[in-house]
Amino acid sequence: MQTNVQNGYGVPLAIIAAGLLIAGAVFFTGNNNGTVASDNNANNTGAQPSGEFRMPSEDDHIRGATDAKVTVIEYSDFNCSFCARLHPTLTRIVEEYDGEVNWVYRHFANYAQGRVAAIGAECAAQLGGNDAFWEFADKMLDNQRRLGDDFSIETAVSLGINEEEFKGCLDNSGEIESKLVTDRNEAVSMGGRGTPYVIVVTANGDLMPFSGALPYEQVFAVIEQALNN
Questions:
Q1: Which residue of 28, 149, 213, 227 sits 20 to 30 Å from the alpha carbon of 11, by its own alpha carbon?
Q2: Per-residue model confidence (pLDDT) at position 170
Q3: Residue 16: its pLDDT value, please?
């Protein structure tokens, strides 16, 4: 599908300015080993994606209707506080738009414990399916101080996943780790400089990016623009 990039989304500048005062993102220094600097205010809302974009497919983790008009693709880290802040907003968006908007989760794992949780989430998906992935993701973002293999195993078991199979997946995670690198490199190539980094794919395939934990009202405005694109 051909994609185009839109800047500004038609969202009033006053809303954008207000959002930037409270939105945040985790920004990192420029190498590919995931080195993280510190939590900072987001400052690249609307920055143009510059790399080759991978459109959503059946290989993605999708929350909501697979045939939705608009897709929200989030590049996220389970140990990012701003990602935890955005998570309920995107959950609410998918629920309220009821079939018109779906949400794809891709990994932008910079923190060590975030990578541990990301591997666990992928193991949950392999062993329990798409719903298990999202339930696992919800748990990780609600319990960021507990992230680690022990909590991942506890969570997987609570979802009905066989404990020994899950541990085996954690112990043989080379393929998953390659996927995390691919997702992260893709985010960087598209202009992501911190987490959460989001690309909204409009009804006609245009791309509308933003960074940080934008408030519900601002995300709502972006989604409305995307649906009417």
A1: 28
A2: 97
A3: 37
Residue found under tokens 């300015």: 17
120 in Cβ contact with 130 (< 8 Å)? no
Which of these, 187, 203, 225, lies nearest to 15 by C-alpha position?
Answer: 225
Q: In what order do the strands lie in the sheet with 24-28?
A: 36-41, 24-28, 194-195
Cα–Cα dist 44/210, whole Å: 7
Q: pTM for the complete prediction?
A: 0.82
Write down the H helix ranges in the chain. 13-22, 81-97, 112-128, 130-142, 149-158, 163-171, 174-189, 216-227
- pLDDT, tens digit, 9 for 90 and up, residues 67-92: 999 999 999 999 999 999 999 999 99
- Here the tokens at position 162 are 């066989």
* Below-50 pLDDT ranges, the chain: 1-2, 7-45
> What gap in Å lies between CA 102 and CA 97, rounded to an integer?
9
Sign of the torsion formed by the C-alpha atoms of 131, 134, 139 and 142 = negative
| Beta-strand relationship, 4-5 and 206-211 | parallel
Domain ranges of the chain: 1-27+70-196
Fold of the CATH domain 1-27+70-196: Glutaredoxin (3.40.30)
String of DSSP letters for 84-106: HHHHHHHHHHHHHHTTSEEEEEE
Residue 124 half-sphere exposure, CB side, CA atoms within 13 Å? 29
